[in-house]
């Protein structure tokens, strides 16, 4: 696997944990989402009620888990973290839910990957705070009703379109996280360096922010590597040229594209005349999981205008052709 999917799909590291903002005041960017959440928290606290259910959507590494922590912190409640693929039986869900206290938050990452059979139990849990579960089998089978404390479900997913309509409709707020602009990322980079006690110049921060694909998790990871690089190959300070050399070593270019991104673009150009081509075909050809292409590489390539999604499949844009330096008319296709 490549650098990006390693960063974006790996569990959180201790350093990342230390860098996580703990309050809204400390969380930069995502203005609309932040304001919507602040309003809900303010109102729920004032009424002394649990927060309504919230769905956060957007690409990985933008702060969905961080916001769940902040919500719990601001509500003075506890947070339980789990993820869709982990809850594979109704019993697992029942166990999680009945273990909650009044007002607690349950964060389900990749909520679109909850098995269908389990998802249905979530409906009554979210709506009526109860769950009817079948115990035993055959003639002894019977349904037992469990009541659940009033909790808040915070769901996270990369795209709302991946959720079924009945599940989606049970969230009071659905709000989208977008890639961060460069100025906000620079601010995040400077904050992280301060917390880590890393010396960085303005040029260094700009260089890292410019190549971090609008993603704080990537920015934090690049800081870590640039710090090591600065200690080994320079005098310890992350300057513009130190950052630039460090990122070259990681094969992340000026536009934040890594080797896998470029392999995808080149493959589509050389073998498929720029498409349309299905994601599964691309995944097999570049030797990467379809899931990783869809969650890690494709959203950024689309956002930055290298790829377009059509009914027939993915197609390269003129910007992509220019970036890989191949002329569309010279591509042979298969
Ligand atoms: P997601 O759940 O969307 O994949 P996370 O909440 O795990 O993303 O965020 C990844 C990392 O990026 C966190 O460890 C956190 O330190 C950092 N981060 C995310 N959003 C921000 C932000 N707005 N300001 C500062 N750091 C952030």
From TrEMBL:
Binding site for ATP: 19-20, 61, 64-66, 127-129, 170, 180, 217
InterPro entries: AAA+_ATPase (IPR003593), AAA_lid_4 (IPR041445), DNA_helicase_Holl-junc_RuvB (IPR004605), P-loop_NTPase (IPR027417), RuvB-like_N (IPR008824), RuvB_wg_C (IPR008823), WH-like_DNA-bd_sf (IPR036388), WH_DNA-bd_sf (IPR036390)
Enzyme class, broadest EC rank: hydrolase
Recorded GO CC terms: cytoplasm; Holliday junction resolvase complex
Pfam families (UniProt xref): AAA_lid_4, RuvB_N, WHD_RuvB
Listed GO biological process terms: DNA recombination; DNA repair
Single annotated GO MF: four-way junction helicase activity
Gene3D superfamilies: 1.10.8.60, P-loop containing nucleotide triphosphate hydrolases, Winged helix-like DNA-binding domain superfamily/Winged helix DNA-binding domain
The EC number(s) this enzyme carries: 3.6.4.-
Reaction catalysis annotation: ATP + H2O = ADP + phosphate + H(+)
Binding, Mg(2+): 65
Subunit structure: Homohexamer. Forms an RuvA(8)-RuvB(12)-Holliday junction (HJ) complex. HJ DNA is sandwiched between 2 RuvA tetramers; dsDNA enters through RuvA and exits via RuvB. An RuvB hexamer assembles on each DNA strand where it exits the tetramer. Each RuvB hexamer is contacted by two RuvA subunits (via domain III) on 2 adjacent RuvB subunits; this complex drives branch migration. In the full resolvosome a probable DNA-RuvA(4)-RuvB(12)-RuvC(2) complex forms which resolves the HJ.
Domain notes per entry: Has 3 domains, the large (RuvB-L) and small ATPase (RuvB-S) domains and the C-terminal head (RuvB-H) domain. The head domain binds DNA, while the ATPase domains jointly bind ATP, ADP or are empty depending on the state of the subunit in the translocation cycle. During a single DNA translocation step the structure of each domain remains the same, but their relative positions change.
Protein family according to the UniProt entry: Belongs to the RuvB family.
PANTHER family for this protein: HOLLIDAY JUNCTION BRANCH MIGRATION COMPLEX SUBUNIT RUVB, PTHR42848
Protein name: Holliday junction branch migration complex subunit RuvB
Natural source organism: Cerasicoccus arenae
The encoding gene: ruvB
């Amino acid at each position: 696997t490549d650098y990006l999917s390693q960063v974006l799909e790996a569990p959180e590291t201790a350093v990342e944990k230390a860098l996580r903002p703990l309050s809204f005041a400390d969380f930069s960017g995502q203005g609309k989402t932040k304001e919507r959440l602040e309003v809900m928290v303010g109102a729920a606290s004032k009424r002394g009620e649990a927060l309504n259910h919230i769905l956060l959507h957007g690409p990985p590494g933008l702060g969905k888990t961080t916001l769940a922590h902040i919500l719990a912190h601001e509500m003075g409640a506890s947070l339980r973290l789990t993820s869709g693929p982990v809850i594979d039986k109704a019993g697992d869900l029942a166990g999680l839910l009945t273990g909650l206290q009044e007002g607690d938050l349950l964060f389900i990452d990749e909520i679109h990957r909850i098995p269908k059979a389990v998802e249905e139990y979530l409906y009554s849990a979210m709506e009526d705070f109860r769950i009817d579960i079948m115990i035993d089998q055959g003639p002894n089978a019977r349904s037992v009703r469990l009541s659940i404390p009033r909790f808040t479900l915070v769901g996270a997913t990369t795209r709302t379109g991946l959720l079924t309509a009945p599940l989606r409709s049970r969230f009071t707020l659905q709000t989208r996280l977008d890639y961060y602009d460069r100025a906000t990322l620079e601010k995040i980079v400077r904050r992280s360096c301060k917390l880590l006690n890393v010396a960085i110049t303005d040029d260094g921060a700009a260089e890292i922010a410019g190549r971090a694909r609008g993603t704080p998790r990537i920015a934090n990871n690049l800081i870590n590597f640039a710090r090591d690089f600065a200690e080994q190959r320079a005098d310890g300070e992350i300057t513009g040229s130190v950052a630039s050399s460090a990122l070259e070593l990681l094969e992340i270019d000026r536009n934040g594209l890594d080797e896998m991104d470029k392999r995808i673009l080149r493959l589509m150009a050389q073998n498929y005349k720029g498409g349309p081509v299905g994601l599964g075909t691309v995944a097999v050809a570049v030797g990467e999981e379809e899931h990783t292409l869809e969650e890690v590489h494709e959203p950024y390539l689309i956002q930055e205008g290298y790829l377009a999604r059509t009914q027939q499949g993915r197609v390269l844009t003129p910007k992509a052709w220019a970036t890989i330096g191949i002329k569309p008319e010279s591509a042979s296709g298969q």
